TrEMBL record:
<dbReference type="InterPro" id="IPR051532">
    <property type="entry name" value="Ester_Hydrolysis_Enzymes"/>
</dbReference>
<dbReference type="GO" id="GO:0004622">
    <property type="term" value="F:phosphatidylcholine lysophospholipase activity"/>
</dbReference>
<dbReference type="InterPro" id="IPR036514">
    <property type="entry name" value="SGNH_hydro_sf"/>
</dbReference>
<protein>
    <submittedName>
        <fullName>Arylesterase</fullName>
    </submittedName>
</protein>
<dbReference type="Pfam" id="PF13472">
    <property type="entry name" value="Lipase_GDSL_2"/>
</dbReference>
<feature type="domain" description="SGNH hydrolase-type esterase">
    <location>
        <begin position="6"/>
        <end position="147"/>
    </location>
</feature>
<dbReference type="InterPro" id="IPR013830">
    <property type="entry name" value="SGNH_hydro"/>
</dbReference>
Amino acid sequence: MEVQLGWVALLQNKLTDRHDGYVISNESISGDTSAGGLARLEQILTRHKPDILLLELGANDGLRGLSPPEMRNNLTEIVRRSQKIGAKVMLLGMKIPPNYGKRYVEMFYEVYPQLSAELKIPYVPFILEEVALNPEMMQADGLHPNELAQPVIAEKIWGYLQALLK
């Protein structure tokens, strides 16, 4: 999929139209984990000095069966370091398939709302809620949204992001 068709680019278009001056810098890396994001964070914060940080990490931790408490610690540290430089943080929640069993999935799901409440940051529940169960909006792997899903994802995030722009 071309970059300009993805939800990040679509969200940037909305920002430019309604709140000129904000620029989205997409620092995502396919397959990245919360530990990888934390390892790259200082460089990202130094380079961009963000006003707002959209934190969408953890799905790959879950797909690999990594420790939810460790993921939580990594996400907590990302939020705290970002807030330390003055960035507002919005947590984008993820879900995973049930491969690792009910207990693991429940532990994983609890991380996002608990972290949001503990750190008093906005939380977007599962950003793929409207698309994940629609095969027409998902790639063949059943995990990643396709081009049709991108406007839906952008709209969902936009609905939450507006509160941080005021």
